[in-house]
Amino acid sequence: MGGRHQLHAGTCRSQSAQQRYASPLQKSENGNRRMSCRRPLLNRPSPMENAICPITGSADSTPFLSVPDRFHPEKGCRWNIVQINPSGLMMLNPRPDREELEQHYQHSGYSPHMQSAHSPAERLQQAAHQLLLSWRAAVVLKGLNKEREETRLLEIGCATGTLLGTLHRKNGLQREHLTGIEPDRESAAYARERYGLRILHALGELAENDKGYDRIVLWHTLEHIDDLHATLQEMEQLLAPDGKIILALPNPFSYDAQHYGAYWAAWDAPRHLWHFTPDTLSALLALHGLTVSNTSQWLPDTIYNTLLSEKLLATGTRKPHGAQNIPAALVQAGRFTLRSVLNPTGSSSVIYTVEKTT
C-alpha cells in the first residue's frame, strides 16, 4: 500500500476518534495499537465544544431544532441544531469533542458496522442496498467522457466497498484505478478481502502524485467531517480538470424532514455535524474553487428515512412500534416520494454534481 505513510490495519474493532470522524486527511498515530471497544458513555456529562460557521467564520446563530439521538431516544438526551447568521448553514452546536464523539459511532445498527440486520427497517435497508448498487453506480458514472477501463475513481467513506466492487465487477472499471478511504478498520479489511481493493484509512495516505481522479464520491459522508476546509482543498487538488465530485447529502427541507420534525432520522445527531442546502453548500464549495453543476434527487432514501423516522417517532412518544407498522410507514413514504417526483426540492436526499470552477 503506497502513500505518504503506511498504516497497519491491525485487529482492533475500534479506531481512534481522530481516525473516524475528524478530517479524512489525518493519519493514524495508533494504526498498529490494539484498542478495545467501549460502550457509549451516555450517562455522564459529555465534553462539548463550540463550532463556527465554515463559510463566514461567524459564531452568531439562531436555535433551529432540538433532536434526539436516533439510537438512544429513550435516554432523553437532546442535541441542538442551530442556523448560522447570516450564511443560513445549519449545524450541530455545541457538539461532543472528538474523543467523546467516537462513542456515538459504536452502535450495531450504524453503517458500516451493520453486518447483520435486527429490525425490519434494517433488513429492508440491507436488501434495498444490494438492489440499488447498480443504480448508484449509474449515477456516479453519468456524463463520463472517457473509457471506463481508464477511469480513476476515489470514494471517501467507502464502508465495506460495495459500490467500488460493483463499479469493478459490473461497470468495467479496473480494480487498480479504484481507491477507497475508510477509517473503520473492520470495514476496510472486509473491502480488501472481499473485493481486492486498495483501501486507505485517510486521504493523507495517498501518494503525493496520486491525483487526476475522474470521479470522487462522498455518499452521505461530508456531513460527518469536521474539518471541511482541509478535506475540500485536498479534493480539489485530487480531482482531474474535467472530473466530477458526487455528493449525496440529506435534505433538511425535505417533505419527510418537515413532517417528522425533531424525529426525522436523518438529523442523526450527534454524528451529522452539518446540514446543507443547495445555497449553503454552493457557498462553501466556492471557497475552494468548486461549483455545483447539477442536482438530482435520490428517492430510495425517502423510503429508508421514513421507516426509521416512524420508529423514532414512536419510541420518542412512547407508542408501540413493530412489523405491523411497516405497511402504514410505506404508504407514508409513497406519499413523500410522489411529492418529491413532482417537486424534487422536497426529496429526502439530494445528489450534487460538483466540478472545478472554470
Q: Quick check: average pLDDT?
A: 85
- Rg value: 20 Å
Question: Structural class given helices, strands, pairing?
Answer: alpha/beta
Order of helices and strands: HEEEEEHHEHEHEEHEHEHEHHE
- pLDDT under 50 segments (min length 5)? 1-22, 27-44
The count of β-strands is: 13
Keywords, please?
single chain; 358 residues; alpha/beta; Rossmann fold; seven-stranded mixed beta sheet; four-stranded antiparallel beta sheet; 10 helices; SAM-dependent_MTases_sf; methyltransferase activity; transferase; methyltransferase
If you had to describe this structure to a student in words, what would you say it looks like?
With 358 residues, the chain is of the alpha/beta class. The protein has a single domain, classed as 3-Layer(aba) Sandwich (Rossmann fold). Helices cover 31% and strands 20% of the residues. It is built from 10 helices and 13 strands. The strands form 3 sheets. Strands 8-7-6-9-10-13-12 form a 7-stranded mixed sheet, sandwiched between helices. The chain has a 4-stranded antiparallel sheet with strand order 2-3-4-11, with no helix packed on it. It has a two-stranded antiparallel sheet with strand order 1-5. Strand 3 and strand 4 form a beta hairpin. Helix 3 packs across helix 4. The radius of gyration is 20 Å and the shape is globular. It starts with 16 loop residues before the first helix and ends with a strand. The N terminus is likely disordered.
